[in-house]
Every structure is written in C-alpha cells, then in structure tokens.
Amino acid sequence: MRLPVTLCVLLLLACNESEPETETEPEPTPESGCGEEIPVLTWEGFAQGFLITHCQGCHASTSPDRHDAPENVTFDTEEEALAWKERILTTAGTEPYTMPPAGGPTPEDRERLVAWLTCASD
C-alpha cells in the first residue's frame, strides 16, 4: 500500500510546471544616481534646448546683451556647459535657485537638468 502512495506523490510533484522560485537581488543603482530608472538625457535631446531657452540670453558668446554675465561663462557647446557643471548645479539645480535670475524652468525641467549634468559626464 505504501508504494501507490509514494507513486502518487511523485506523480503530483512531476506535474507541477511552475518554475522553481529563486531570489534575485535587484541591480544596484550606480552611486551617481544614473541608472535605468533615469531616462537618458542627451545634449541634443534636452540640454541644448534647455540652455538656449533659459540661459543663452546671457550666456551665449554671441548674445548682444549679456546682462553683466562674465564673458568666459558661455554655454554654446556641450563641453562648455559641462565645464561649468558644478556652478550650474549650485545656481540652477539646487534651491535657492539664483539662475536664471527671472526664473522660468519648471521644477521637472530643473530635475532633468540635474540628471543630465550628473549623468552626462559619468
């Protein structure tokens, strides 16, 4: 009588089609915060337009009225903007926002700017 019970148990176990459960650790997020959770922001797709709209009125090398912006602080290219990364993060990416002086960027765009500056040079 014991053999049929054992066979039934084995048959039931063999019919179980579910995958064995395995625990997987989530991928660690890089310390910089740049990972799959943050969409990839590029110079062409985001930063250039943001800087033209909100910064280049004063910080373009060809701007006729720079409103006393230092001559050497220009954001004409990705390289120039990234060279000023820390200052941009401090003045436009963290409260209290001092740039642009008249305001303008939405909180979401400021977050995107921070993400671009943080991830572009990583």
Descriptive overview:
The chain is mostly helical and 122 residues long. It has a domain at 43-63 and 71-120. Helices cover 48% and strands 0% of the residues. The chain is built from 6 helices and no strands. It has helices spanning 2-15, 43-54, 56-59, 78-83, 85-92, 107-120. Helix 2 packs across helix 6 (107-120). Mean pLDDT is 80; it is low at 5-14, 18-22 and 24-32.
Overall morphology: globular
How many helical stretches? 6
Taken as a percent bin, the fraction of beta residues is: under 5%
User: What's the gyration radius in Å?
Assistant: 27 Å
- Structural class of the helix and strand makeup? mainly alpha
For the termini, the CA-CA separation is 69 Å
Strand element count? 0
Low-confidence stretches: 5-14, 18-22, 24-32
Mean pLDDT: 80
Q: TL;DR?
A:
The protein is an all-alpha fold and 122 residues long. It is built from six helices and no strands. Helix 2 packs across helix 6.
Topology, element by element:
Layout: H1 2-15, H2 43-54, H3 56-59, H4 78-83, H5 85-92, H6 107-120
Helix pairs in contact: 2-6
